[in-house]
Design brief:
With 327 residues, the chain is α/β, with parallel strands linked by helices. It has 14 helices and eleven strands. The protein has helices spanning 3-13, 15-25, 32-43, 58-67, 84-88, 122-134, 169-172, 186-198, 210-221, 227-241, 261-277, 285-296, 304-308, 313-323, and strands spanning 47-51, 73-77, 89-94, 99-104, 111-115, 136-139, 142-145, 151-156, 175-180, 255-257, 301-302.
Length: 327
């Protein structure tokens, strides 16, 4: 397909994006980056981890997105005493029929909000892992395929570490994006305050259907990505693994492990989704740079030396982006 033709097709297919953003902005004040990243995760078919202190509208944003799409939404509050059956469901004996029947859990939804995911023990996290990766759930001896689209949107509180179970690397790598949510500015804070004390709290209404999302995902895959951009993505990921090869020898003692191959895949997919949101049929280097921190921040391991010097993955990613040659 020619770029001009692809541009026209994407301009037509992405028309719902503005409607969706405007609908969410009725409820969410500010937080434009968070809204955009949630849409990227949805369009690129990837799970999203939201990190921020309580009260920054993480849960509200996810609920508003689900309400805007006529999707089945489930929310589960993760706690240390949660069992896998509380999440995926279990076999229940029916006295009437004298046989076991399946009682499905909250994971059987299009949007699953996993609130404070790091509060659940390893058994529950591993049960969620199958749903996230395989898009299926096993109860007893039966395996059930989850409805499409299926998206896990998880939240975690970075302040409180007591009674939490840090997500293992294998699970955190399943999340396409990790979004850090910051405080609103003064004007946004005043608007939030007015909205909440007025009593007339706005509600989102459905503007698109799940079929529109599935259709849009196919179009996102067709967004053109040049080989030079592919090389740029590969250079970014490889410089997190072998910094000395990219004139970043200073980073070598600070990185314990670099981005996995999923980092390259997700950088390409999220760049395509961002180009789609911007109503463009091709990826530019700015798309890659825009999503790079969100894709890589949870995929780079820090050494004790880096932690001792208060160096974060944000610092390392910024250093990589400043050093790797832009095509």
């Amino acid at each position: 397909m020619e770029i001009k033709e692809l541009n026209e097709k994407i301009h037509l297919e992405s028309s719902f994006v503005d409607c969706l953003i405007n609908e969410m902005k009725k409820v969410i004040v500010g937080q434009h980056t968070m809204i955009e990243r949630l849409l990227i995760g949805m369009l690129a078919d990837g799970h999203v981890l939201l990190e921020g202190v309580p009260g920054l509208a993480k849960t509200l944003a996810v609920k508003s997105l689900a309400n805007s799409i006529k999707e089945k939404f489930s929310r589960i509050q993760f706690t240390p005493d949660l069992l896998p059956a509380d999440l995926i469901g279990t076999m229940v004996y029916s006295q009437k029929s004298e046989e076991f029947r399946v009682s499905k859990g909250p994971v059987f939804a299009n949007f699953l909000l996993a609130d404070e995911i790091n509060r659940a023990p390893a058994k529950v996290q591993s049960a969620l892992l199958e749903a996230m990766q395989e898009r299926q759930v096993t109860i007893g001896d039966q395996t059930y395929t989850l409805d499409e689209p299926f998206l896990v949107l998880a939240t975690e509180n970075p302040l409180e570490q007591e009674g939490t179970y840090p997500l293992p690397e294998a699970q955190i790598d399943r999340f396409m994006l990790k979004i850090i949510i910051n405080y609103p500015d003064r004007n946004e804070e005043k608007e939030i305050m007015r909205q909440n004390i007025s009593g007339n709290f706005p509600v989102t209404k459905p503007v698109i259907s799940p079929d529109d999302i599935i259709k849009a995902r196919k179009v996102v895959r067709n967004v053109y990505i040049d080989e030079k951009i592919e090389n740029y993505i590969t250079d970014i990921v490889f410089s997190s693994r072998q910094p000395a090869d990219y004139k970043l020898k200073d980073l070598e003692p600070l990185i314990s492990y670099g981005g996995s191959p999923r980092a390259s895949i997700y950088l390409a997919l999220t760049s395509k989704a961002l180009a789609f949101i911007k109503r463009r049929g091709y990826v530019i280097p700015e798309d890659v740079r825009a999503v790079c921190h969100d894709v890589l921040r949870h995929r780079i391991g820090l050494t004790y030396e880096a932690e001792a010097e208060n160096i974060t993955t944000e610092n390392i990613i910024s250093e990589i982006l400043n050093s790797v040659e832009v095509p």
